Amino acid sequence: MIEFDAVSKIYPGGSEAVREFSLRVPSHRTVVLVGSSGSGKTTLLRMVNRMVDPTAGRVLIDGEDIQSRDPVQLRRSIGYVLQQGGLLPHRTIADNIATVPILNGMPRKQALAEVPALMARVGLDPGFARRYPGQLSGGQQQRVGVARALASDPNILLMDEPFGAVDPIVRRELQDELLRLQAELGKTILFVTHDIDEAFRLGDEIVVLKEKGLVAQRGTPQQILAAPADEFVRDFVGVGRAERQLVLEEVDGRTLAVDGDGRPVGILRA
Ligand SMILES: Nc1ncnc2c1ncn2[C@@H]1O[C@H](COP(=O)(O)OP(=O)(O)OP(=O)(O)O)[C@@H](O)[C@H]1O
After folding, report:
1. What is the pTM assigned to this prediction?
2. pLDDT, average across residues 152-174
3. Pocket of ligand 1, candidates 39, 190, 192: which has the most ligand atoms within 8 Å of its Cβ, to mutate?
């Protein structure tokens, strides 16, 4: 479990990124922080692996205040996936994926021997192992980023807009892949996005943030969609958007769901 206990962050220079934020991320769950640019999402995520230290408050992992943990050791024990993959361009895919296990002291040969299974796990052809990141598509690079984050089998995965730089179709594939992986692996995932649809797809729980990490609402996707806490959440979730305004229509004896623009989006199961 990850616990934010009234954390605040004022960056040197005076910019206040987060004000007294508290949250529990239960083990084996996916919690999504969603909010517009500058709401403090990345700052909060980075507090978990001590890339950012709070100016006030505490972050605990399984009950232990991480302020007492060595930041480098801590970072290597947590998977971290970034929007641009963060891959080393002059190292092969295999070397990129094996980086953390090797840093953790695993013999290089053994770490490299585990690469094909990791690649297969994220839906990548192990034949790509000898290629370089620039030879892969954006979506494939993101899969490498996920494989690298999983390589040392961390309990916690931090994901910062990991699918933000790929086109919508690939994005959807990567989301499906993450759902499949999570059903298999049961990691504790803290996921950051500004895309509410992505949050709805992936999150067991969603935290909608306003500026400075102020929580507008938290809950399951169902709770947030059914009962947005205020005007801000209504707007953010797009309750009034045509594609969220479904009505049922009878056509040839079957019941279709039709959106606010009249487009059919689904059919009720008999
Ligand atoms: N290293 C830094 N130094 C000073 N100010 C910073 C730093 N990092 C972030 N900030 C400021 O803190 C606030 C929150 O930034 P943060 O990146 O956490 O938000 P975010 O919700 O992740 O935004 P985005 O979606 O644009 O990444 C912003 O006002 C930003 O300008």
Report:
1. 0.93
2. 92
3. 39
Which residues, including other chains, have CB under 8 Å from residue 88's CB and lie 6 or more apart? Answer: 95, 96, 99, 133
**Predicted confidence (pLDDT) per residue in 164-176, tens digit:** 888 889 899 999 9
Tell whether ipTM is more than 0.90.
yes
Q: Is the beta carbon of 193 within 6 A of some atom in ligand 1?
A: no
Return the residue matching tokens 């947590």. Answer: 78
Phi-psi region of 251 (alpha: psi -120 to 50; beta: other; left: phi over 0): beta
**184 & 227 share domain:** yes
Euclidean distance between CA atoms 140 and 128, whole angstroms: 10
Please tell me the distance from the alpha carbon of residue 31 to that of residue 45, in angstroms, as a whole number: 11
Q: In this structure, what are the phi and psi dihedrals at residue 31, rounded to the nearest 5 degrees?
A: -110, 130
Full residue range of the structural domain in which residue 108 is found:
2-239
CATH number, position 135: 3.40.50.300
pLDDT for 240:
83
Q: Give me the numbers of helices (H) and strands (E) for the chain, helices first please.
A: 10, 13
Residue bearing tokens 């239960």 = 26
pLDDT surpassing 80 at residue 185: yes
Query: Distances from the Cα of 95 to the Cαs of 119, 127, 160, in angstroms?
Result: 12, 14, 22
- Going from the Cα of 66 to the center of ligand 1, the distance in angstroms, rounded, reads 22
52 and 153 in a common domain: yes
Distance 197 CA to ligand 1 centre (A): 22
